[in-house]
Amino acid sequence: MNEVANFKKGSTKGCADNNLNYPPYTPKIQDEVMYSKTLCMDAKQAWGNHYDVHSLYGYSMVLATEKALQHVFGGNRTLMLTRSSFPGVGKYSGHWLGDNAANWNDIKWAIPGMLEFGLFGIPYIGADICGFFDDSSEELCRRWMQVGAFYPFSRNHNAQGYRPQDPAAYGPGSALVESSKHYLRIRYTLLPYLYTLFFKASTTGETVVRPLMHEFYSDSATWGVDRQFLWGKHLLITPVLDTGVVMLNAYIPDALWYDYETMKPLAVRRQNIQLHLPGDKLGLHIRGGAVLPTQKPAVTTTYSRRNPMGLIIALDDRAQAAGELFWDDGDSRDTLKKGNYIHYKFTVLYGVLTMQVMHAGYRDPNNLHFENITILGVPHPPLSASVTHVDSGSHENSTTIVPDSSIEYDAAKEVLVLRHLSLTLGETYLVRWEVPQEEYQRFDCHPEEHADEAKCKARGCIWKQSNIERVPWCFYPKDYGYHVRLNEHTMSGIWFQITRNKRYQSRSRSESPDIDDLHVQVTYHSGNMLQFKIWDPATARYEVPVPLSVPPVPETNEDRRLYKVLYKSDPFGIQVIRKSTGTVIWDSSVPGFTFSDMFIQISTLLSSEYVFGFGETEHLTYKHDLNYHTWGMFAKDQPPGYKMNCYGVHPFYMGLETTNDAHGVLLLNSNAMDVTFQPTPALTYRTVGGILDFFMVLGPTPENVVQQYTALIGRPVLPAYWSLGFQLCRYGYANDKEIADLYTQMRDAGIPYDVQYADIDYMDRQLDFVLDPEFAGLPSLVDDMRKEGMRFIFILDPAISGNETDYPAFERGNAADVFIKWPKTLSDDIVWGKVWPDYPNVTVDESLDWDTQVELYRAFTAFPDFFRNATAKWWHQEIMDFYQTTMKFDGLWIDMNEPASFVHGTAGGNCLGDPLLEKPPYMPPLDSKHLGLNHKTLCMNSEQILSDGTTVRHYDVHSIYGWSHTKPTYDALLNVTGRRGIVVTRSTYPSSGKWAGHWLGDNNASWDQLYKSIIGMMEFSLFGIPYTGADICGFFNTAKYEMCLRWMQLGAFYPYSRNHNGKGNPRQDPVAWNSTFAEASRKVLNIRYSLLPYLYTLMYEAHTKGNTVVRPLLHEFVNDRTTWDIYKQFLWGPALLITPALDPGATRVEAYVPDARWYDFHTAKEVKVRGEKVWMLTPMDHINLHIRGGYILPWQKPENTTYYSRKNPLGLIVALSDNGTAHGSFFWDDGDGIDTVEKGQYLLTSCAVESNTLSSKTIRNGLFEADHLMLGIVKVWGIGTNITEVTLRDVTDTVHLLTPQYNADTEVSIHR
């Protein structure tokens, strides 16, 4: 009655005639009188005239009642219902839909009523079951009891003077009683699911009773559905709402649905169907993809909460499912705030249920267990089932086999039930059931195009068609491969001799017959790393000459190893098992293993579908799609594009396991190759040469994986401090004046900017080491810029023109025999290509097509063989001569080193030697593969010579040409300049990061390249090359204003931050647009420069520990599976979250806020959201940045170059955690000295906050006096209360009193 209701109109004395009681306009309300059935509008309340606050009366009563309930019941939650409501009431109270009537209209109306109150934020809602007024018929009440069992607020209620309508009134055994009992038991069984929905409503605002359109809004057929509703996203309720109906027209949305009662799947979706619903039934369906927590029902929740729990898993079309469970004591207040609850996230992937405890702050006094797990949609009986108890403390997990007596399988319904599991509530478990799915177990025997049955059987393989898209029709028999003949176990590994199964003739590729006998060596290098190598003992084969750092002595103590290695004999395969969890992370005992001279293939089962890495190519997501995708790898002058093999090769991946552990695998092979994923989940490698040499690191965290991988391949280079500044380049500068003008404009605009480049424009006819006359003033300009704190980098290509009459670079190189030639048995000539250098005395007509230009104008070029010691010496000499006699520089940019050529193979196109090397029997799916491996590069039979004198074919070492080019360039740079500088290379291979950074190539000026650049950076973080970034605003095509501005904001957080575009396109540098653009660029670059001390410290940690710099969220929050799929946000280290705008017209961006305390970088205010997706505003001049609580970040006041910013005092941002702690570190050296870390010429401090005290510990202080810094400002975020006193204790133990500045709004204290 709290509308407020009154049985009199206004009052016992009526209401005065005034504008409040009789306003100029009266809305179309009942009786068209403002005070009808309520008080006079001029009545006075504390909140104002009743005219204004009438509709708030119920709300005010709710607030008062809430206070009273808190006072009376103290720490216990209670139930409050209000009849009158207003926005905000749902925070305290539920609502019933009022005094309805016992008729079929009102049973229908209740559903739209509940859906509307779901919109209004009042999810605890329901109608009076069977009606309040009038007498209900038995049929109406029976149907109403069925649907009312699924009202969130489920109450049977009627008025005085009408027949009793509670279920018992209809008599024991009656249809109504039995039907009511049945559906109320289902309700009580599903109360854990319903309670979890209310947890989601309370924390994230999700609806409980949900319209179908909320889940299927792209299906317009759901927009008008109001006679069906959902519980959350997973339970569809379809009641009978009309008299006499047993066949009901119902809409089935576009998903797989299971009948709750029969557990059988529906055969239809996205259409109306006729459901047979006799008098005791309503429609109840579980959506595929659901994990519903359950509990054995009882007559009250007091007793049901003591009963065993369970799960109902409804697998979707991909045999996956997910769900949650929230559990606390059921009635205490503030259990969320106090952390007194259990929160589970359930996921099912490939026959593994992960019951992951996200929070365990409550222990149920009833010692509850999950007893039974029911899985719907299991197509075959399980081979076995097991349960792994994941002990988060000791990491000593235990696995138990589920006995056959506890496994029930109903083949007709395809339902699997695992009984008597006794899994303790609040603990993490993995429940596995192994079910064969034959079609996904197939391994492709004919990966080439145009497979048919005859070709398939000619290979000894099986031909069988499939209705599943992409499943191979030609696949290997189960025993295809090798079997073990001999093996020998030692403390440090296992040795095998294996023999090919000769049942299958070696006829799959006649030009490359299989090798019958192989050796295999497994070596336990350390507790977290092992190697397994497979080779031909009878014939010397090429092995990759990239040195790796393996421990000098293997790990012979089994107790110290994180893994154990098993093998299967027939077909031969290695299994690597993580001992702590029992997870098999590698299992190559699958059919198809092939080892021939020019085709090698091996497959392995994967531990989960979460695989990251393999490059270099453009990926659409960070996580690989395992639905039969193949990726080729072979270094090529190919701009980024989907499934295009690009500049470098990185046959390394990181896999996540269902236990949240991670591992990494490197195949040390540099031949052309591909990898194929399939949903098994499994992975197949194919390569055209070399051997199989695998290295595996065991983590167990993603960050550990990168640390261990870079320990193997080499830690990343520490870039010069200035190279972390903003950089500008353009292919197409006409002369040095354009560079000078740009420099002046940037300085006038006050935009931070450290490095200027020259692309090949500065070269005379694109000749290395020769200055173009149009750039005659460039050396002087560079000198002037360097005096003002700027740095300069120029480009070098490897190709050297051979058509000059006076060209020392070629003449000295030819005399030293540094250029790649044919094998001496074929010719003693250089293998000539054509790249950028032009012939002498030609005028290039750029209007001609490209191939004609190459033929008419491009000179013959020779390619240095950088494997040779003589080549490194020659390269150093040319660089030094240029530095000393032509122009100074600070870094080098090496390009076109795949190596790239503008002709295919050689000038004239005639590759000498074996044509199979140019077009091998198996061609991986590479760009232009029909043209062969020599497309846009050298002939594969070209000969190169390793530093030890060994001759190798370009066929084998092509993809490490860029790798061989990088170290000589880095060594020359350091020796010539005497400073550290930076090298940026286009083509990379594992360990390239020891000497160089990398840009992501010649990208396009398009929106998709923004998010793809994040994926690229995260992949190169995995590959051990943290100094990376994309060409800001794009290289090809014309950049648009909004896109370029958003890219400038994103690019300000690339470790390698350079704006660069191609010839023929308009300028896109920050001063090329307008003052608004320049101001936004200055703003975001000032933020970058202020945080450079933090970024430099991250680079130091990458250099010394192998940490990532650009860091995927999953590296820090691996236990939160939401982060596994995030690739449009990234971190700098552990503490800075970057959420860029990546789409045109965006004014807000959807962001995931991981489960930690976060502060808005711009305002220092705490973000009151955790573990959720939220929409963040992002106006055009803004990028969302957040600092993680618990961390201390060093910073400096920005300047226009790092030369000046480095002179400013150091500051600290102290972002406090929930418990008032924080920690961080700070690295500092002279910024560009050579080997400062190795020589100890640096400062390293650690900082920590505990008990309101910030302490600093010096770990190393080897700085020269000139590089010392002063600490200026300390900002403490999230301090909570006003600071009255701050003291500083210095190294002499003297105490100084400081005066703090405190901002109560942001909870920030500043100390100077």
UniProtKB/TrEMBL annotation:
Family matches, as Pfam families: Glyco_hydro_31_2nd, Glyco_hydro_31_3rd, Trefoil
Q: How does it sit in the membrane?
A: Single-pass membrane protein
Gene Ontology biological process terms in this record: carbohydrate metabolic process
Q: Where's the P-type domain? A: 433-478
Q: Name one GO molecular function term.
A: alpha-1,4-glucosidase activity
Give the UniProt subcellular location, in the record's own words: Membrane
Q: What keyword terms does UniProt attach to this protein?
A: Disulfide bond, Glycoprotein, Glycosidase, Hydrolase, Membrane, Repeat, Signal, Signal-anchor, Sulfation, Transmembrane, Transmembrane helix
The residues forming a coiled coil are none
Which Gene3D superfamilies does this one have? Glycosidases, glycosyl hydrolase (family 31), Golgi alpha-mannosidase II, Spasmolytic Protein, domain 1
Classify the main location. membrane
Does the record carry Glycoprotein as a key word? yes
Q: Which GO terms describe its cellular component?
A: apical part of cell; cytoplasm; endomembrane system; plasma membrane
Q: Domain of life here?
A: Eukaryota
Keyword Ligase, does the record have it? no
| Family (UniProt) | Belongs to the glycosyl hydrolase 31 family.
What is the protein name stated in its UniProt record?
Answer: Maltase-glucoamylase, intestinal-like
Species name: Hippocampus comes (Tiger tail seahorse)
